[in-house]
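A quick aside before the break. I want you to see a complete sequence-to-structure record at least once, exactly as it would be stored in a machine-readable document. Don't worry about memorizing anything.
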Amino acid sequence: MRRKLLTTGALLGMMIMMSTGSIAQPRHPQIREAMEALRNAKEHLEHAAHDFGGHRVDAIHAIDEAMHQLEICMHYD
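That is the input. The structure line, written in tokens, reads:
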């Protein structure tokens, strides 16, 4: 009886998994990748040994603005 119950439970679990499809993928993977690249660039700039002729601060501000725009993009399909 117990073995039959376990087999039935396993079959039911497999049927549920197959009916729901694969695990949902996060939306907008390319935008997420771009955001990660921008985070890495910002990290490098923040810890850079020099200011790149005064452009480091401007670049960091541009990254912040780009991140803000990408966050807005994430709300659209």
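Two observations worth writing down. The mean pLDDT is 82. The two ends are 50 Å apart (CA to CA). We'll return to this after the break.
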